[in-house]
Design a protein that fits this description.
- The complex is a heterodimer of chains A (about 500) and B (about 90).
- With about 500 residues, chain A is an all-alpha fold.
- Chain A is about 75% helix and about 0% strand.
- Chain A is globular.
- Chain B has about 90 residues and is mainly alpha-helical.
- Chain B has a two-stranded antiparallel sheet with strand order 1-2.
- Chain B starts with a helix and ends with a helix.
- The relative contact order of chain B is 0.10.
- Classes of the chains: A mainly alpha (about 500), B mainly alpha (about 90).
- The interface between A and B is large, with 79 and 65 residues.
């Protein structure tokens, strides 16, 4: 990649713009409460909410990792469009019940729901267990974004900014604008980053299609080169397809940063409009990156086990080598990818700070001290993560794989608890612990799928069964206060 | 409808190794999956437009009053989420 000086200039302009947005966001702050810092004072309107949901949902992995997965798997990776869409479908189970309660009770973090909904001697342990699972998922998501930031900064500047400089420098910029402007800065920069991502992807895909002579030509060329990439998937792949849709749909809605955006919406109407718009974004993003990866099959001969993640940089190198507008457009795609990575990283960091301060180590509060505690925890987590991110060769794939398997274990405490008053604290905690142990144990024993079903999904089924059966037979009085969801039958 | 579209999007009903047929520039089973996902997107967007999402609970929520401190959870009840300043008044 030979963007060199133009890459440095483009990156510099982009970072200055981010810092400027942070200052404007700081001026817009209403007070120093956690609600104002972590949820933008619950003032996010339809457009900004939509863009921040979009930029947060589509990470660097979506733009750089998914084309590599499509290159390896072929057309069967169309499943990614389905599983990204399933997230917005599953939000329909969560949002209509959680949103009014969050406004009424001033929720800031997911733990606030646990505090309100559950009772009894095990409620604190349950809140900690949920917070630990969510923090682990966020921390390894953050680590993956930091590593990707270093790689992209190095690529876009042709090595003028080394990997280590990219990780530390960009992490510092994120910490600056997140600390200064909180959720407002994160959401506003997400809006700009989302637009850059969309334009970059559309430009790259248009170039690929025009180069190949149309979609038919791409499919025929792929079929000639790798017939397995176009063939009807086997039964085990079909089972895995269903399992992935289930895993991603159920687990992704429980990302704390996603839940906090439900709390941060200006109104229920803004929330509905944003989610209605988000329904179409997998078609505009995941489908496009899948087709980009598939188009690369006909162009490159890569070792699918090692080099496939480099598909997008390879395509951009080819595209950018034409010079002129092509180089500028390729540069825009790279900045779009960097935007996607940074927008996910900043959301993770903001959520992680609030989660650790409020749900795990601190106390719920509405004062300036509670906000400051969250900022400090965010800074601590970033400082702790950077040395790991600087180890370029470190392989955390197993942990990253575990991320969704951990989050899905929180399904009973949220999705079921919102709809069933009879669910009790002890059984939910027991189910969560056993489901987590089962998923983690099997993963570390080298089994990530059982007949195509993710171990996290299998663990969640056991988890749900324990939570439901023991809630039905238990005499424990820790069911939900009857007035929380008055229209539901128990 | 959304559930049915998801079930039909996965080509479990197709024979592995069937000859390649191209629809709309894609292998036919991919085109079917994509058609299903477009249907999911449309129906999901309509469902969100029609969804009843309120900014206030269905009835007057007296949950705090009905959430008495459990004897063994006394320290936890002190952490009940305090309504946060200005938005609590909404």
């Amino acid at each position: 990649m030979n963007f060199g000086l133009w890459g440095v200039i483009g990156l510099g302009v982009y970072l200055v713009a981010l810092v400027g947005v942070a200052e404007v966001a700081k001026q817009a702050k209403l007070d120093a409460s956690p609600s104002d810092h972590f949820l933008a004072g619950r003032t996010l309107g339809s457009f900004v909410l939509f863009m921040t949901l979009y930029a947060t949902a589509y990470s660097g992995n979506s733009l750089l990792g998914y084309p590599g997965r499509a290159y390896r798997s072929g057309f069967e990776f169309i499943m990614a469009t389905g599983f990204m869409m399933s997230i917005i479908v599953v939000f329909q189970i969560l949002v209509p019940k959680l949103r009014p309660l969050s406004v009424r009770h001033g929720f800031v973090t997911p733990g606030d729901w646990i505090r309100l909904r559950f009772q009894g001697p095990w409620v604190r342990t349950l809140r900690w267990a949920v917070a630990i699972l969510m923090s682990l998922a966020l921390a390894n998501f953050l680590l993956a974004q930091l590593k990707a930031m270093g790689e992209v900064a190095s690529l876009v500047t042709a090595g003028r900014i080394p990997y280590e400089g990219g990780v530390i420098g960009l992490a510092a910029v994120i910490l600056f604008y997140e600390t200064r402007g909180g959720m407002r800065a994160v959401a506003w920069t997400d809006a700009a980053q989302g637009i850059a991502m969309l334009i970059g992807l559309a430009a790259l895909f248009s170039w690929l299609i025009s180069e190949a002579g149309g979609l038919d030509e791409i499919t025929l060329a792929v079929a000639a080169k790798r017939p397995d990439a176009v063939s009807v998937p086997t039964a085990i792949v079909c089972v895995n397809w269903f399992s992935t849709i289930t895993l991603m749909g159920l687990a992704s809605v429980l990302y704390p940063q996603a839940i906090q955006r439900v709390f941060a919406a200006e109104s229920a109407t803004a929330l509905k409009r944003s989610f209605a718009g988000m329904s179409f974004m997998p078609l505009a993003t995941t489908l496009i990156v899948t087709l980009i990866g598939i188009a690369a099959i006909a162009r490159f001969d890569l070792d699918t086990a090692v080099d496939a993640d480099g598909v997008v940089p390879l395509l951009l190198r080819e595209w950018g080598s034409a010079g002129g507008w092509a180089t500028a457009a390729a540069l825009l795609v790279f900045l779009g990818a960097l935007s996607a990575i940074m927008s996910t990283a900043d959301s993770c960091l903001l959520s992680l700070g609030s989660l650790l301060a409020r749900d795990l180590f601190g106390r719920a509060g509405s004062d300036q001290a509670a906000t400051a505690l969250g900022k400090r925890w965010a800074a601590v987590m970033l400082i702790v993560a950077i040395p790991f991110a600087l180890q370029r060769e470190i392989t955390l794939w197993r942990l990253i794989e575990l991320k969704m398997e951990l989050l899905i274990q929180c399904v009973p405490a949220f999705l079921l608890a919102l709809h069933w008053k009879g669910l009790k604290t002890g059984p939910v905690l027991a189910g969560l612990l056993i489901g987590t142990l089962l998923s983690v144990g099997l993963t570390f024993a080298g089994t990530t799928r059982l007949y195509g079903v993710h171990v996290g999904v299998a663990g969640c089924i056991v988890n749900l069964a324990i939570a439901v059966v023991f809630s039905l037979v238990s005499r424990d009085a820790s069911r939900m206060p009857s007035a929380i969801l008055p229209t539901q039958s128990s | 409808v959304i559930g049915l579209a998801y079930v039909m999007s996965v080509p479990w009903y197709r024979e592995t190794g069937a000859p390649l047929r191209i629809w709309f520039g894609l292998p036919d089973w991919v085109a079917v999956a994509l058609f299903c996902y477009v249907a999911v997107a449309v129906f999901n967007a309509v469902a969100w437009s029609l969804a009843e999402v309120s900014d206030t609970p269905d009835e007057d929520d007296t949950a705090q009053a009905l959430h008495p401190p459990h004897p063994s959870d006394a320290s936890d009840t002190s952490e009940s989420p305090a309504p946060i300043g200005h938005e609590a008044a909404r």
